[in-house]
Amino acid sequence: MESDGAAEEVKQPEAPVDVVDTPKPDTAHKAAPALTNLSSTPTTTQPTTSSAPEIPEEHKHSKLATPAVRRICKELNVEIHHVRGSGKDGRVLKEDVLKFVENGGNQPAAQTATPSAPAAAPVAGETTVPLSFIQAQMFKTMTRSLAIPHFLFNDAVHLDPLTTIRKHLNKQLESDKSSSVKKLSYMPFFIKAMSLALNEYPLLNSRVSTEGDKPALINRPSHNIGIAMDTPAGLIVPNIKNVQNLSILEIAAELNRLQKAGSEGKLSPADLKGGTITLSNIGNIGGRVVSPVIVDSEVAILGVGKAQTIPAFDKDMKVVPKTEVGFSWSADHRVVDGATMARMATLMKSYVEAPETMLVKLR
Ligand code: COA
Question: What is the enclosing helix (H) or strand (E) of 25?
Answer without folding.
Answer: helix 25-31
